[in-house]
């Protein structure tokens, strides 16, 4: 078998490690399938998951292909600015902890649409909220699929990108439809520890042989240094022309944040125009950085597939404890991916020249194989096998989690609440399985289109949409009694949709430009652009208006603000209260029992208010 | 929906809810401020003091060390303090409310 694999360019160690990860994941799904019987087990694991398990499972689900492969790739490609991603991915949980985790769990609903309906007594609002589970979910699955395509194309060098997407999509869809969320909790928790093992062990071995993190970082000269401060013996290959310079790479406000303006500078016709644009470079970069921070920090607190996990905590205090442990678990993880990016810049600079699934996004997989050229062929293969296993764990676990939350939205919210409210638990379970199949198919279709985009960049965009839709909804609903359904819906819808539109415009033009770059023949290129007039018009507009491009690529800074302002203004406008008693008048949009709802959200469980609330609503025909 | 109009006890009073939300929000905002100040300040320092932030510490530049390594434990400390205080606050509230009821 081994010579056969070698002939096909496949390293047996890498193939075996990857296969074992897939088999364990699928096996655990099957094993637990027999244990999850009721609909409650499927959706929120019977609400009985302990803090330790739940924190590992949330971390396992959260650390996606973007964290495992994308962060390293982006640090290597763009340098310092990319560090904001891992830091905000981890620290964004603080906002979730401070403002949302405890109250949300106490409210006691299955999903975010449940919360939206329960808080405002409005089935219409549920429909709006469900749309965003799907919008954010699909934006988030695309980069996971790119991770899958990239990893499989790396393991099996002859395999086309789309084939990897199809294989991984099919395996996970099957797993989710068999196991549901209970199965997933166990699998996710296991996968967190696998990912930590897979990111740390290879880099420790590698660093001990080729030089430490800080030594490789010191090999990059800052603008203030005349020579690099690297100690003797740190090896560094020559950088290709496409790679950013040391000074731009190691300092803030580099390629990531100046890309839009750089394109305009190249296109500028006169030296004066160029000089004027140059002067804007740093302020625009600062704006980009802040918008990115807002997207990632607020977005973390608004991700539906993560929020749904807080309902699996036994109570609000456990939800808060879980969040703190999640921050510690993922924080420890996130120190390591940038190390791959930094060492990769020194030792595998050839990745700068490659595009798509062969580019810097695969540095985590590629770097350990360098040891093969240093008289450690077996070690290199084993370590690369380990990072491949980690990559599998990364995109499989996140995709599973997304599949569960999107299928739940379809089965629980659309089928169970809208299409067939009287459905039996068996029918709902069946609907869940069918929904998983549909979502899986769409995700594979979308994933096969995005080879040209960076994994981490795409995930950042999903965060921006979450930041402009769910975050303001949850934050304001939990803390402001005066919010009306119309206010909440207007803010979430307009904020979220405008972020979605802005981001889609940049992605459409980026995918088209990436395809155009592959065309070398001038006549063919003209014909290509003639076939894609919309993408051409958008791309030209970005060149002429770099600020608009930055604000569309990173819309959080205006979209989150817009969403919150709309919520406040529309709520104040639609909220009419009786001047004498302060209670809402008639069919007023502020729910009549808002005080009780706020008590359930904020009062400690010890007071037993939740039971009271549920009983009352059961008496009224169910909540 | 009888809770708001007919039960005059302490838990269901407006004053109790207002205090509950105010105390918890105050704690959350104080912790969020520490975090936000750091998030806002780091890009500003990079912007106005690039040479200072580029000085080498153990091979890292100062700004890389802060963002890539030190930021994580900083946030853990904030969250640890928050959890401890917030749980203590909840216990005190539950106790106070129950005392109010038995009076």
Topology:
The complex is a heterodimer of chains A (623) and B (103).
Chain A (H helix, E strand, L loop, with lengths): L1 H6 L4 H22 L5 H6 L6 H12 L2 H14 L5 H8 L1 H15 L4 H9 L2 H33 L5 H50 L2 H6 L27 H5 L4 H13 L3 H30 L3 H7 L5 H19 L2 H11 L15 H4 L10 H43 L5 H23 L7 H25 L5 H34 L3 H10 L1 H12 L1 H8 L2 H19 L19 H9 L6 H11 L4
Helix pairs in contact in A: 2-10, 2-19, 4-10, 4-16, 5-9, 5-17, 5-19, 5-21, 6-14, 6-16, 7-16, 7-21, 7-27, 8-9, 9-10, 9-19, 9-20, 9-21, 9-22, 10-19, 10-20, 13-14, 13-25, 14-21, 14-26, 15-19, 19-20, 21-22, 21-26, 22-24, 22-25, 22-26, 24-25
Chain B lengths: L2 H4 L7 H35 L1 H4 L2 E2 L2 E2 H41 L1
Helix pairs in contact in B: 2-4
Structural description of this entry:
The complex is a heterodimer of chains A (623) and B (103). With 623 residues, chain A is an all-alpha fold. Helix content of chain A is 74%, strand content 0%. Chain A has 28 helices and no strands. The model of chain A is unreliable at 42-46 and 618-623 (pLDDT under 50). In chain B, strands 1-2 form a two-stranded antiparallel ribbon. In chain B, a hairpin with a 2-residue loop joins strand 1 and strand 2 (60-61). Chain B has one domain (2-102). Chain B has four helices and two strands. With 103 residues, chain B is mainly alpha-helical. The model of chain B is unreliable at 1-8 (pLDDT under 50). The chains are: A mainly alpha (623), B mainly alpha (103). Chains A and B meet through helix 6, helix 7, helix 11, helix 14 and helix 16 of A and helix 2, helix 3, strand 2 and helix 4 of B.
């Amino acid at each position: 078998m081994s010579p056969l694999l070698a002939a096909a360019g496949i390293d047996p160690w890498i193939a075996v490690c990857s296969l074992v990860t897939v088999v364990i994941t699928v096996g655990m799904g099957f094993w637990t399938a027999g244990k999850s019987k009721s609909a409650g087990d499927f959706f929120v694991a019977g609400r009985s998951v302990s803090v330790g398990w739940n924190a590992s499972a949330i971390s396992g689900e959260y650390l996606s292909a973007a964290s495992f492969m994308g962060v390293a790739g982006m640090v290597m490609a763009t340098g310092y600015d990319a560090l904001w991603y891992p830091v905000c991915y981890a620290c964004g949980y603080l906002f979730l902890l401070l403002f949302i985790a405890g109250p949300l769990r106490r409210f006691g609903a299955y999903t975010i649409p449940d919360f939206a309906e329960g808080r405002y007594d409005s089935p219409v609002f549920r429909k709006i909220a469900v749309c965003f589970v799907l919008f954010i979910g699909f934006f988030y699955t695309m980069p996971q699929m790119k991770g899958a395509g990239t990893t499989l194309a790396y393991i099996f060098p002859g395999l086309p990108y789309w084939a990897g997407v199809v294989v991984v999509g099919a395996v996970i869809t099957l797993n989710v439809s068999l196991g549901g969320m209970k199965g997933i909790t166990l699998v996710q928790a296991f996968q967190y520890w696998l990912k930590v093992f897979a990111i740390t062990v290879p880099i420790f071995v590698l660093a001990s042989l080729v030089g430490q993190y800080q030594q490789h970082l010191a090999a990059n000269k800052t603008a203030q240094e005349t020579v690099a401060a690297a100690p003797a013996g740190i090896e560094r290959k020559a950088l290709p022309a496409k790679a950013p310079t040391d000074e731009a790479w190691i300092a803030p406000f580099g390629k990531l944040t100046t890309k839009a303006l750089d394109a305009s500078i190249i296109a500028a016709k006169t030296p004066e125009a160029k000089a004027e644009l140059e002067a804007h470079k740093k302020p625009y970069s600062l704006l980009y950085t802040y918008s990115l921070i807002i997207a990632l920090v607020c977005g973390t607190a608004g991700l539906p597939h993560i929020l749904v996990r807080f309902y699996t905590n036994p109570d609000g205090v456990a939800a808060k404890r879980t969040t703190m442990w999640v921050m510690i678990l993922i924080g420890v993880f996130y120190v390591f991916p940038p190390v791959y990016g930094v060492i990769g810049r020194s030792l595998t600079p050839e990745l700068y020249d490659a595009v798509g699934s062969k580019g810097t996004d695969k540095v985590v997989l590629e770097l350990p194989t360098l040891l093969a050229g240093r008289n450690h062929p077996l070690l290199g293969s084993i370590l690369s096998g380990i990072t491949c296993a980690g990559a599998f764990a990364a995109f499989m676990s996140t995709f599973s989690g997304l599949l569960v939350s999107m299928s739940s939205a379809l089965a629980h919210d659309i089928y169970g609440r809208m299409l067939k409210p009287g459905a039996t638990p068996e029918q709902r379970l069946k609907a869940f399985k069918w929904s998983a199949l549909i979502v899986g198919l769409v995700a594979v279709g979308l994933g096969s289109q995005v080879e040209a985009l960076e994994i981490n960049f795409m995930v950042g965009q999903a965060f921006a949409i979450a930041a402009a839709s769910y975050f303001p909804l949850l934050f304001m609903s939990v803390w402001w009694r005066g919010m009306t359904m119309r206010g909440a819906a207007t803010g979430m819808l307009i904020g979220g949709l405008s972020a979605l539109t802005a981001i889609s415009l940049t992605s459409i033009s980026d995918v088209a430009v990436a395809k155009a770059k592959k065309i070398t023949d001038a006549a063919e290129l003209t014909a290509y652009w003639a076939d894609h007039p919309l993408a051409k018009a958008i791309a030209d507009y970005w060149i002429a208006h770099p600020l608009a491009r930055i604000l569309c690529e990173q819309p959080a800074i205006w979209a989150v603000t817009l969403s919150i302002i709309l919520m406040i203004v529309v709520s104040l406008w639609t909220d009419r209260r009786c001047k004498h008693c302060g209670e809402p008048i008639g069919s007023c949009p502020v729910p009549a029992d808002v005080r009780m709802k706020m008590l359930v959200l904020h009062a400690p469980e010890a007071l037993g208010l939740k039971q009271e609330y549920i009983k009352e609503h059961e008496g009224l025909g169910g909540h | 929906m009888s809770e708001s109009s007919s039960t005059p006890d302490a838990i269901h009073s407006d004053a109790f809810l207002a205090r509950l939300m105010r105390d918890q929000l105050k704690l959350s905002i104080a912790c969020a401020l520490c975090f936000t100040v750091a998030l806002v300040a780091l890009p500003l320092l990079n912007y106005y003091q690039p040479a200072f932030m580029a000085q080498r510490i153990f091979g890292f530049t100062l700004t890389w060390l802060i963002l890539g390594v030190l930021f994580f434990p900083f946030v853990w400390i904030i969250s640890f303090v928050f959890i401890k205080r917030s749980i203590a606050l909840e216990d005190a509230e539950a106790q106070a409310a129950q005392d109010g009821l038995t009076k």
